[in-house]
Fold this sequence. Notes:
5-stranded parallel beta sheet, single chain, alpha/beta, 3-stranded antiparallel beta sheet
Amino acid sequence: MRVLRPRRRLNPVHKSPAPAPSPSTLRELRESGHVHRSVKAEIRANLLARLRTGETRFPGIVGFDETVLPHLERALIAGHDLVLLGERGQGKTRLIRTVIGLLDEWTPVIQGCEINDHPFAPVCARCRGLAEDEIKVVWKHRTERYGEKLATPDTSVGDLIGDVDPIKLAEGRTLGDPETVHYGLVPRTNRGVFSVNELPDLAERIQVALLNVLEERDIQVRGYTLRLPLDILLIASANPEDYTNRGRIITPLKDRFGAEVRTHYPSSIEDELALIRQEVIPDIGADVPEHLVEVIARFTRLVRDSTAVDTRSGVSARFSIAAAETAAASAVRRAALTGEERPVARVCDLPGVVYTLRGKVEFEVSEEGREVEVLAHLLRRATAETFRSTLGGLELGALLDKFAEGAQIESGELVSATELLRRIGPVDGLAKIMSRLGMGEGDESPGHAAAALEFALEGLYLMRRLSKDDVAGGSVYRT
């Protein structure tokens, strides 16, 4: 059985950084042979190097290799600012954050500079006024060269670009002095990557403030222009409907982005499975068998395709991740109440997902009041499809024989694995069932055996070879 483990720790952005380079003065930096490159040149060179060696360019991104990533790579090589267009939960923010890994691991900046000036090319008034022997060099890791702002209606120009600092004015500086400016998030991310999430939610007057950043690479504050040649890669995310149809993004700003890249939900069941395995929190404390992960993946895809669901809203990848975590939590709860030693999720843990996650789905108005019914039906379909793909064609006569003389087997989320196995009794061919479900060496616990048999019972019910009665706290399988 495959155990869910996150892969995000493989991301080089989050590895323990190598020691920072040693030059600490402008003279030492020159003598070290350091070459000054723009942010876009850094990203281009590092991306091309990874393409040549076959190294992973965007760790943790699933299902975009043949669709989204080629377009993104072309945009980055071209040095374009870009917009990622996609429905909610398609990994846009995750994808943007992986671009940080294409920056040089360490870069030199002038000590005390608010906008990360490079020692070879200072641009702010303070740093330009320093004598060469006054310039001290500090090293900034690439994880510190990323800025992000969730666009909200109350976002101001001061938040993004900057504003006059009244404290500096009170200290005696004049209004026209560039050093009276308190820099916003964009200039503070100079020589890095800046992300604006949900760009169309910015008010139009705030969108206007970004025009110069994208084209002229300077900023304007309170009526006078600061000629700051910002060195920055700007990446925005947006919902396609808001970006293209409703007119919530001003045309001049759209024109200044060099590329638009469309994202999408996982296009195959394999990608959906990989995403769930990667993202589920590992320390909940329960094993989630592979066949249950497949049920959840198929369930998510059926919900996305359902005519009862508002397709404009979409069904986030967080839906399937939360479903797997909820099933695991249900198993842990059962173990705590019944004294099970090793919690293993079972089919009986899935119905609770419907009630927990219905708020994550936007339904059509005509389905109001039927949300639980719709989701429960789709969950049964997903379970049946998984049964056919895993145990379809396997001889389950030994299990059906248990019911030949009118026996009934009750299961439920508070029935321990040991108790369920006692109620079922010995079953010839159990090893084959577990093998077909991907349970191998190390999965011989009562919890795994119970999970396999309960899934087989549920599949036989869905294939109309058994009947099932719902009772308080569980279900009774019978002929």
